[in-house]
Amino acid sequence: MTKSALQIARAAYQPKLPKALVAGDVKVVEGAATQSVADQKAIQALFPNTYGMPIITFESGEAVTLPAINVGVILSGGQAPGGHNVISGLFDGIKKLNADSKLYGFILGPGGLVDHNYMELTADIINEYRNTGGFDIIGSGRTKLEEESQFEKGREIIQQLGIKALVIIGGDDSNTNACVLAEYYASKKYGIQVIGCPKTIDGDLKNEMIETSFGFDTACKTYSEVIGNIQRDCNSARKYWHFIKLMGRSASHIALECALQVQPNICIVSEEVEAKDMSLDDVVTYIAQIVADRAARGHNFGTVLIPEGLVEFIPAMKRLIAELNDFLAANAEEFSHIKRSHQRDYIVSKLSPENSAIYASLPESVARQLTLDRDPHGNVQVSLIDTEKLLSEMVATKLAIWKKEGKFVGKFAAQHHFFGYEGRCAAPSNFDADYCYSLGYTASMLIANGKTGYMSSVRNTTAPAAEWIAGGVPITMMMNMERRHGELKPVIQKALVKLEGAPFKALVAQRDRWAIETDYVYPGPIQYFGPTEVCDQPTKTLQLEQAK
Ligand code: FBP
């Protein structure tokens, strides 16, 4: 591998660990029994072996050597900066317990477990990937682990390699499946532990015990750097409105965090759109009004941040998507035989009148997205919908009408951007490098202590890393029942932006001023070397959430 100068220098970075993990072995402190966030009876019935377990906290203990253990690791779903550090933390943790411990990586995600596609991750390999972005050490994939036959295929290779525990690094869906797998192996008494790690740039796998998912910090800083650069360009030329869509699937955490970092003129938050029951036209009117207000002051430029999941949060669109989800789940076979050119008409003829009318009115590309290109979890692949173009076209149409009515006096020219993939494999910030290494190391301690069905947890993350609190949270604690593919299923509750939460309130308190004044912030690139206030800042979201 040819390495950049930064990569070479960065390889020497020693991630910071919570104090309790540095000492050597750890003492396990168990809290009270836990409950799921909702639907307790149903979740308990589905997870009789892994429900109600206590929260675990690690404290410094005596250093001990345990018998060697073999561990398997899987990277699941979308890439997020820091995945390699989770693996290196896990590797260092099990090696510290016993130098003969081995780590096996399953190739290209959960599919690697089922297909028995794996490699041993030796020290030489691990050292090549410390503090680097990407998931390329073993690759990632979106195969869902949910069938008993897959669990059994997994068991075969796990037992063949003498693996004691499997660590699944993934988002809410992957950790849901990790929990189902943990329960299955526990019910069969196979003696195979399953531990999850909270990953996703989307930032929507978080709760009281999981303060943030890894990768969110680096991805938001990467997007904020380029949005800042665009804002400086925008404020220099003063002739374009930039419509910037940001990844994040459903939740608007990324758009909100970037807004707090760069102070754009407009930031749409999907959760607010839903709560206020706004229509697509309401969103367009909100943007157009700010464009017109700025134009009245001679400012024909600005920036609009748009969360990629927006269309799913517009109530009328949401009703349409819900009906499509159920319809396509029930009629997948029939739909697969319809010619591509007839699919739109077919759907129009099958939906209820209200949803049929909305579906028929959508531009072709958006309509196609909603029915055809779904991920293996059945989710609409919102990252492929051109919401930024849809909105700017509709804003242009409205402004043209307002111009005739004398309500708009300026010019409107738009540029479009989508920031997503470019943030998912960036070299992890110090925060993510430290957080991920700590999550991996914590996972090794959960394994050493015989735990299964737990997610690795590192808390108190706005304090210096030494003061972080490492432990484990039962995954069942995060679950509720939700409708998926037309059926009620136990799943980890997705954390959306809370409208009563401090980060959103901080946006609301400032957005009217940001809309009219040009008060852009230019965060610049992530810094890996330098003063701690430049290199080690956690996200604004975390800082605001934890400012008590
Ligand atoms: P995960 O939830 O698996 O972490 O994926 C996050 C994400 O980056 C979303 O923000 C985005 O909508 C999606 O993945 C894109 O998926 P793909 O990489 O398959 O195009």
Automatic annotation (TrEMBL):
Keywords: Cytoplasm, Glycolysis, Kinase, Magnesium, Metal-binding, Transferase. It catalyses: beta-D-fructose 6-phosphate + diphosphate = beta-D-fructose 1,6-bisphosphate + phosphate + H(+). Its EC number is 2.7.1.90. The record marks K199 as: Important for catalytic activity. The keyword Magnesium applies. Substrate binds at T200, I201, D202, K239, Y240, M247, G248, R249, E308, Y421, E422, G423, R424. It comes from the Bacteria. The record marks D173 as: Important for catalytic activity and substrate specificity. It is found in: Cytoplasm. Diphosphate binds at G78. Pfam families: PFK (PF00365). GO terms for molecular function: 6-phosphofructokinase activity; ATP binding; diphosphate-fructose-6-phosphate 1-phosphotransferase activity; metal ion binding. Residues 70-341 form the Phosphofructokinase domain. Pathway: Carbohydrate degradation; glycolysis; D-glyceraldehyde 3-phosphate and glycerone phosphate from D-glucose: step 3/4. HAMAP family: Phosphofructokinase_II_Long. Homodimer. Catalyzes the phosphorylation of D-fructose 6-phosphate, the first committing step of glycolysis. Uses inorganic phosphate (PPi) as phosphoryl donor instead of ATP like common ATP-dependent phosphofructokinases (ATP-PFKs), which renders the reaction reversible, and can thus function both in glycolysis and gluconeogenesis. Consistently, PPi-PFK can replace the enzymes of both the forward (ATP-PFK) and reverse (fructose-bisphosphatase (FBPase)) reactions. This is Pyrophosphate--fructose 6-phosphate 1-phosphotransferase.
